[in-house]
Amino acid sequence: MTAHFDLNGFSKRRVMKQTKSNSSGSAFLAAGIETGTITKTVFPVSFPLPENKHTEMPGQHDGRLLPAKPVFENKFLSSLEPSSLLELLPFMERVNLSPNEFIFYPERKVKYIYFPETSVVSEIQILEDGRTLEIAQTGRESVVGLTSVFAVFADPECERAANWSQTVIGGGALKIDIRTLRAQLEKDGFLRETIFEHINSYIRQLSQRVICHSYHSVEERFSSWLLMLYERSRGESLPLTQETMARLLGVHRPSLTHIARRLRERKTIEYTRGRIHLRDREKLEVYSCKCHLH
Question: pTM score, two decimals?
Fold first, then answer.
C-alpha cells in the first residue's frame, strides 16, 4: 500500500496497492507526508490493513479526511490520535529484540525509545551483594525509555539510562529516535499528555515493586511475576530458564527451583528445560501477592 497525505490542505490523495505476497491481509505502508516543501519518507512498519480506507474527523482536523489508524499491538501507539500517529510513523522502525539482549546500560546515552509488541523488557538493578533484581517490566502495554525523553529537555547530555534494560521475552517492537520524539512532544499536546499518563503508570509500578520486594514471600512474588509476564506476552508457554527467573527475582536458584516444584505439584505450572507453561491461571492467582494487578 502506498499513501500520500497533504496535511496542510483539505484534500487527500491515496494510492493503494496490495502486494501479491500479502496473503495474510497485511502489507507494508509506504507513506510520504508532505508539509510545505518538506517530504518525509516512507516508513517500514507492517500492520493489518483496516477495512475502512479513511475516516472523517470533523472539528479535530478541520474536516480533513485522515486514513484509518494502523493496528498496533502496542497499546501506547494504538491509543494515540491519528494526527499524532501520522507525525511519528515516518520515523519509526520495526525491530526484533532477541532474548537477553541489553537495549540500555546505566549512564550510557539513550538513542532510541522502544514500543514493545510481542517482546517484554525488564529493567534491572544490581544490589551491593552482586544479586540482580528486576524493578520494572514493560511489554505491549507501554513504552521503554520514556523517562530519558524528559531528561533531554533539561540537558541534552542527560539523556542517559538509569538502569540496565534487558529483553526477557524476545519478539517484535518499534523504535524511534529519542530526539525525534522530543521534537514532536514540544508541539503535540495530546502526545505529551499520553506520555505523562504512561510515566505515572511506570512510577506506580516502581512503587508497587518496592512494596512487593520488601513484604511478600518469594512464592508470592514469583507467582505474581509470572502472571505479569504472561499478560504482557499473551502466551501460555514462555522461553525461560530457572537461572533467568532467579536472577530477575533476586533470589538464589535453589530457592526458586523448590518453589517452582511446589507450584508444579499443585498443577498451576509445568516446566521443561528452558520453558515454563501456565496450566491454571486461577490457581496461580491464589498463590500470588496480587501486585500484578496494580
Answer: 0.76
**Using an 8 Å Cβ cutoff, are 124 and 133 in contact?**
yes
Task: Please give the CATH topology (third level) of the domain spanning 216-293.
Answer: Arc Repressor Mutant, subunit A (1.10.10)
C-alpha cell at 51: 477495512
User: Which residue, 24, 31, 32, is CA-closest to 70?
Assistant: 31
Query: What is the SS3 string spanning 85-152?
Result: HHHHHHHCEEEEECCCCEEECECCECCEEEEECCCEEEEEEECCCCCEEEEEEECCCCCECHHHHHHH
User: How many Cα atoms are found within 13 Å in the side-chain-facing hemisphere of 291?
Assistant: 28
The correct answer on CATH 1.10.230.10 for the domain covering 93-213 is no
Closest CA to 125 of 252, 255, 207, 247: 247
Instruction: Check: CB of residue 166 under 8 Å from CB of residue 101.
Output: yes
Q: Which of 26-30, 63-67, 278-282 has the lowest mean pLDDT?
A: 26-30
Beta strands in the chain, from DSSP E residues, in sequence order? 2-6, 13-15, 26-35, 38-40, 45-48, 54-56, 65-67, 93-97, 102-104, 112-116, 120-126, 132-138, 164-169, 171-177, 237-238, 269-272, 275-278
